[in-house]
Every structure is written in structure tokens, then in C-alpha cells.
Amino acid sequence: MIHRTIVLACTLLLFVARPAPAADEVGKPTPLFNGKNLDGWVWIQGTPKEGQPKVDIGEVWSVKEDGVLHNKGNPGGYIRTEKDYTNYKLTLEWRFPGPKPGNGGVLLRMIGPDKVWPKSIEAQLQHENAGDFWNIDEFQMKAAPERTKGRNTKKLHPHNEKPIGEWNKYEITVDGGTVELKVNGLVQNTATDCAEIPGKICLQSEGSVMEFRNIELTQLPGAAKPAASAAGPASANKQLPGLEGWHILGNGNWTMKDGVIEGKQPESEKSYTHVVSDKSYKDFKASLKFKCVRGNSGFYFRVKPDEKGLMHGLQAEIDELNNIGGLYESYGRQWVAQPDASLVKQFFKPQEWNEMTVEAHGPHVVVTVNGTKVSEINDTTIAMEGPFALQIHGGQDVHVMFKDVIIEALSN
User: Fold this and answer.
1) What is the DSSP string of 317-329?
2) pTM of the model
3) 135 with 118: CB under 8 angstroms?
4) Cα dihedral 387/391/395/400 (nearest 10)
5) I need a surface site. Which of 32, 173, 255, 345 has the fewest CB within 10 A?
6) How far is Cα 390 from Cα 276, in angstroms, rounded to an integer?
7) Which residue has the higher pLDDT, 218 or 309?
8) CA 4 to CA 18: how far, in whole Å?
9) Calpha distance 31→39 (Å, rounded)
């Protein structure tokens, strides 16, 4: 089902808006864990040790009859939300049921590929260290230098956790560039200048039996800011005159004239440059026309920009000759669907306008070029929401053009 259409001031783009679901209303407390099952969460296991098998989520995480989320602690890894969140207040209760305490953590604004451990800010849950920060994979943030050693920033006060077996409460506020950790009502840590970027929320499985309950999120005003704000506040993003609803990240030269978006960059420029949509999308149908005069490009979807402006996630490949329409996961698994060269020769028109369509319904993605189905995947590990981006590849002499970009947001 397609919802109402919004036509931007520029005739190049047509968007079909999808109303925000009720669960995502700003200011309304929403359970992240329903107390019944693990719907809305994804299990990511660390690299298995020799002889250790990959296991399903139910072998590590389970829901008890009283609605408590129980974590065995082994094997190591984490569960993460399917959705991305930017600005919010997260509250949860946790305990070590005993007899021994242990280790765990809550990962905030997790971006990039799934791995152990993913790029994020960790709100520590190790026994007697709740309220510490751990910076994972050089996430952009500033913390008190006098309490910071390496990646760890110690809490402000002596630990105020309750005895083993009793419930503790975490109140985590992630608002713009500030992250505040409150343990049992006491502010234990604050970080500033954090990258304001949408990301997952994760709960770690780190070798200890732990339990959680009353996991609740309240989105704060500003949670609907552009999804690509990782490079700074939205007001700081470069705009492309005549193109509303998109912004530029990077140093390449993008112009727009007569409805054509044109990107150029010399080989000497090693950074990547993108035109990124301000909005994020879930299920969609997108079509566009492209002409790749030289070099390499791509059409990103459901992407995760990081604080350096790099795009993490899937792109439909655009090139002057090779792999057109293939699916490539940047900073992840690389090729997830690579087309046969003989097929590309049949449908691709070098140095001419070609038409691409990308349609995504949950994990199912289909790419067609000039009417030929080129790539198809059904992969539950891919991102389910994020913005679009047009790419100029770094370190290459690139000249690429786009026009007639149409994005239809579909209901689930």
C-alpha cells in the first residue's frame, strides 16, 4: 500500500510519505521488550571458539514466566534492536541473579557492521562499575579527561548498586551530543560532543547470567532529525541548490542543472562523497536513471552514515562497465549478490542513460536494471531502515549523473 504523495519544490524527486508508527511517537514511553518474546530484537554471536557452534537466540536469551528477560551469558555476543534510534531516554532494570556477579553492558547508537564488539558507546554494567563509559571502535565522544584512561571513563561516584539478586535501575539519556548515565537515581557519568546519529540499542551477553525487565524508551524532541546527521548538526550539512530533502557529505563536486544531479571527483581525492536523503525509509520502491561516464558509484539504501560521513550498508552497484546492479555491503561482507559478467553485457548500456529499480520488503531486496532482474536477496541480517545516498567513489576519477529519482515508501 502506498501513502500520500509529496512533490518537492524541485521536480526531480517524488516522495510518497509513510506516517510514523504510533510506537515511535516523540514523548511517549514505549516498551522495547514486550515481556513475552524477543520480537524486534536480533541476536549477534561473536566468532565461535574452535568446536563451538553457532547458536540461535533462544539458546542464549529467553523470557521467563514473570516477563523477565534472562541471559545465560554464553556464548558471547549481543542482542540489538531492529530499529535505529537517535535521541531518547532509555530506562531498564537489571540484576545478577547470583550466586556470583558478572559483566554486561548497554550499547548506544550502535552503527556499522555487526561484530563483537560493534561501534558504539557502552554504558557499563559490570558489577560495581555500572555508570562507566566504554568507547568502542573510536566512536566520536568526549568524556572527563581526569577520569578517562584509554577507552574507559570511570563513573563520578563510588558504586551505588544494590546487593546481588536485587534489581537496579539504569536511566540513560541520549540527547543530541550528550549522553547521561544515571544509576539508581544518581548521575554517574556524562559524555558530550557525541556523534548524533541513528543507531541500534544493544544488550551484551558477556559471560555472566543476567536478567532485565521494564526496558522502556521515550523518544525526545529532535529524534526525527536527518538520519545522516553523523557529520554534524543538520544546519552544518552542505546543501545542493535546487534539491530539497537531501544534503552532501564529503569533498566531491556535486551540481544540479535541468533536473540532473552530476557528481565529479578527481583520483587525487581519496575520500568518498555522497548526496544523502534527510529522511530514513523502511520498505520502499525506488527508481532512478543513471549514467556513469567514468569511475565507480552506487545507490545506497537503508544506509548507516558514520561520524566521518562513510556509508555502512548495502548499495546497488553503479559502474562504467562492471557489476552493475549487484549488491555490495560496504564495511561489511562486501559482495552479497554479484551479477554474472555475461548478464551485465546483455542489459547494460555504457555511456548512456540506464534505469534502475530497487524494491525492499523487510529482508527481501530485488534490483532490476533496464527491465532485467539483476540481484535478489532474502537476508534477515541487513538493515531494515535508513536513508538513501548517491555515491562518488574515493580514489578514482569519477563522473556520474542521476535523474528522475522516485522513492515510494511502502507500508509494512
Assistant:
1) EEESSS-TT-EEE
2) 0.56
3) no
4) -170
5) 345
6) 7
7) 218
8) 8
9) 12
